[in-house]
Structure formats: C-alpha cells, structure tokens
Amino acid sequence: QVQLVESGGGLVQPGDSLRLSCAASGRASANYVMAWLRQAPGQERELVAAIYTPSSTYYADSVKGRFTISRDMARNTVSLQMNNLKPEDTAVYYCAAKPRGAPPGAYSSWGQGTQVTVSS
C-alpha cells in the first residue's frame, strides 16, 4: 500500500479556484492509479477524477471542463485543480490509490480527507 496525505482544502466563494495536492509515499507508488473522490453530507462517495497515465484521465460529468487532475512522478504527488467552483462541489475530498489492474472502484489506499466548502 501507499500512504497518502492531502492538503489544500478550504472555504471559497462560487466561481473561485482551489488546488488540492496529495503526497504519496510507500513502495512502488508509481504503479498505482491515483484518483480524487468526494463525499458530501448525506450522499455517497463519488469518483471525481482519476489519472491512469498522463494522457489517460477520467472526470465525472459534473466536473468536466472545470477540474484538472495531474501527476508529478518525480515528486510523487497528484493534484486536482478546481476552477469555477460551485456550491454543489462542497464535500470532503479524498485522495485515493489502487494498484494498476485492480477492478474499478477498488481503491485500497486513502488519505485523511480535506474539506472543500463553496459558499457566498
């Protein structure tokens, strides 16, 4: 498994931008698919974005065109740039990782979560 530590959450106004970062450590972390998931109060956790290779990414329909996931292999970090934030983006955001080849949704390593609140 890899260890994950998120940073960058906070309180912003609608239309603002925020960047979340996740530092990964542990054996063979480069062999893991990295992702960001979020969970709003009373709702199920949902996959927001995932990065399989620099040219292969996934975005939930609700964030396409506004969020960008990226990975720095040299620094072993993954980031989520969030632009034009909306109140419905309010949630706890989690960085997660799964071994390449694991089934969809089978994330086995999780960060502690960081709160993002979008409110005027």
User: What Rg do the Cα atoms give?
Assistant: 13 Å
How would you classify the quaternary structure? Answer: single chain
Terminal CA distance = 39 Å
> How do the SSEs run, as a string of H and E?
EEEEEEEEEEE
Quickly count the helices. 0
By DSSP, the count of extended strands is 11
For the largest beta-sheet, the strand count, sense and barrel status come to: 7 strands, mixed
Find the structural class using helix and strand composition. Answer: mainly beta
Describe what this molecule looks like in 3D.
With 120 residues, the protein is mainly β. The chain is 0% helix and 53% strand. The chain has strands at 3-7, 10-12, 18-25, 32-39, 46-53, 56-59, 67-72, 77-82, 91-99, 109-110, 114-118. Strands 2, 4, 5, 6, 9, 10 and 11 form a seven-stranded mixed β-sheet that branches. The protein has a four-stranded antiparallel β-sheet with strand order 1-3-8-7, with no helix packed on it. The mean pLDDT is 93.
